[in-house]
Amino acid sequence: MSEMHAETVGYVRDTMLPEQDPPATSVGAIGWLRENLFSGWFNSVLTILSLIFIYWILSALLPWFFSPTWEATSLNECREILAEMGREGHFGGACWGVIRDRWVQLLFGFYPSGLYWRPILAFILLFVALGPVLFSDYFPGKLIWFSAIYPFLMPWLLWGGSVWTPLLVIAGLGIGYGVFRVVAAAAGNLAGIIAAVIAALAWWIFLVGPLSELIHSIIPAGLNSVDSRNFGGFMLSITIGVVAIAISLPLGIVLALGRRSDLLIVKALCVGFIEFIRGVPLITLLFVASTLLNIFMPPGTNFDIILRVIIMATLFASAYMAEVIRGGLAALPKGQYEGADSLGLDYWQAQRLIIMPQALKISIPGIVSTFIGLFKDTVLVSIIGLLDPLGLSNAIRADSDWNGIVWELYGFIALLFFIFCFGMSRYSMYLERKLQTGHR
Amino acid sequence: MTSTTDPHTESFRLSMLIYDTRYRSTTIQVVALIGFLILIGWLISNTAQNLQDLGKEPSFRFLFEPAGYDINQRLIEYTSRSSHLRAAFVGLLNTLLVAVMGCALATVLGVLIGVLRLSKNWLVSKIMTVYVEMFRNVPVLLWIVLFMAVLIETLPAPSAFRGDDPESTMKLFESVALTNRGIYVPEPLFSRSLGDVHLFGQSALNFDVSLNLLAIVAVLVAGVFVSGRIRDRADAIQNRTGVRPTTWYLRLGVVFVPLIILLVALGFHLGYPELKGFNFGGGTHMRNSLIALWLALSLYTAAFVAEIVRAGIMAVSHGQTEAAAALGLRPRRIMGLVVLPQALRVIIPPLISQYLNLTKNSSLAIAVGYMDITGTLMGVTLNQTGRELETVLLGMLIYLTISLCISLVMNWYNNRVSLVER
Fold this sequence. Notes:
The structure holds two protein chains of two kinds. By secondary structure, chain A is mostly helical. Chain A has 17 helices and two strands. Chain A is about 70% helix and about 0% strand. In chain A, helix 5 crosses helix 16 (about 390-395), helix 10 runs antiparallel to helix 11 and helix 10 packs across helix 13 (about 305-330). Chain A is globular. In chain B, about 65% of the residues lie in helices and about 10% in strands. In chain B, the strands form four sheets. Chain B has a three-stranded antiparallel beta sheet with strand order 1-2-9. A two-stranded antiparallel ribbon of chain B has the order 3-6. Chains A and B meet through helix 3, helix 11, helix 12, helix 15 and helix 17 of A and helix 2, helix 4, helix 5, helix 12 and helix 13 of B.
């Protein structure tokens, strides 16, 4: 056969051809366009429709957005500036003067302007305190001590007052621990814990106030105190969000453990609490904070509205936190529990040394998204009359200079919320990836 | 607690309550229960003391007193002389109205966006990503007030529709008027109406149900049922003979022919909104507050639903898609017959909680003045009667009931869906 071919075929290639470049339409920008935007008539139609949509949005938004009104001092001035340029009507252009005039207020509310360094410092220190927890790879481990002190430092920085109060509150922990050591040695762990809790509570409720006044009168040291009603803007949102999440974490752990426990009554109490809180809207809990909480307390108690809101927000967050942590606990393989049992650890040792470190690690993304949810929900406090950013926007509109401003304020507030929440959700995704590789 | 009662007997010592695992759990539970009861008792005694000091006595009698305020958006008969209970009922129906409308729209939009986000078209998937991130990361209350502002500021006043050469015209063949006082859509009217049936007599919760609506629903349900039987028969014939009879015209017919006959018999026609004086008359008036709340809640929840749908579709393993493609199914049928039914099982549980969230978020209606249960019972009624305790607790109870009902219904459905599995 081959010989026949050798006679009949005039030419047989005996060397490889060099590889050719792919056609110009399947590489580079054109190739990308063909593959991702115009593969088939349906995709092409979708692409063109999307382009029209984007053009429609941008052509409405951009001229409004680029408006030279940064220096204006009132809405009327804005309108004059725009009218000179021949841009009339509602959509002639944005009036950015209001942001220049009031952005500080939107951030800090009516906090005394001389003391702005305190919330700013508290905010920066928040990241220092969160660092060892969130980015454990990049921060020295010793900083975790600062994270532990921070919850006491932050209220003092924000509200001010005598320096002795936070110190005495910390001392309460030490006293509780001391009582625990003494009683536990004499009468066992459980009695020790009960005695320690009672001692610490008694210390905080009855002794911290008078003692701190006493020491303050001898050695005055402290910051100017700031009233709660001066709090506002994003500072208020962040304060409520951070405090509520920080306190709800231990509460949530306790509730989650209670919900998974074999003790019927404890379980029923925890399930009842969690399902009740999750079944009602946050706004009704805020109504409880604004109208009912004082009725529930002993006659004569009157603590301020922000504290009441924080209490209800904490209860709210702790129910959701409990569900997140319960998910983390359920995700742990059963072998971990059995392994802990086989080592002879008791319940609390097993939780502390084996279960919680793993379960909490798994549930960090859920915790972050609970925090995002709670942070967004803090705008609800404007409904009960607190001056969060949304409440402040109404207050700003009440000023005759800026009466009639709508979009610019809402847009600015939405942008700030977007930056916070988007950043946190990205962080939680980063963490999810990090944890995923850890498991493989 | 740890002292021993009788050191000589080995039978039972008090310390065993703590150290013996047989008794310890009981001890802890009893301690917890006592602690809980003490807490409750403390709260109740505080409340009773405080209320006594304020001269208020807890009672729900105020619910039967005349409310004395108007509710502009209502589904049932209500006047300012009606009782507070009636007002709360109107509010409850409004809550349910916006929740049902919102869940429906959020589901449709969410599924659409979730699927489009997985599209191979780069531009489309990026636009959908921007949508999801934009709505997810801004508080829903902000969206509600923003939508309210959009409706009020951008739509023309009714006066713009007047004159020979009006600035604005009605949309969709002269049937829908978009004004800054709300949206007017055609209303269904029946010239030979069957009338209404009155439920619950003279009590505060009485309401009318239109017999026309009931008849239409009954005919529709019957039609769909018969259509299902026809499909079953076609399936049976196909299984027996291998040839599927053509039934689509029959199936359409049994649904639509009786419906059209009924509508003609009832004298169905649309009542169009018309400009009368300074405002529109006729048609159904959907107020701005309702529209803003509905759109904001739906668009916000749709972003979450989209993420759930996307995660559900991605949870179906790629082998399923490839196997379906190997069977020769077209992409659209792969989606409909193979991927979606499996994805649904992953999607439904988180979807339930999104519906719950939407219903709870509808309580933000108070920010735009939509009179839902928060606006009536926990808003105006609370302010007028000064009964904080009763109104807020009753309101919470109502929301709790709604939440429990939704999760019961949805769990039932979820169980049905998951039973199909294997």
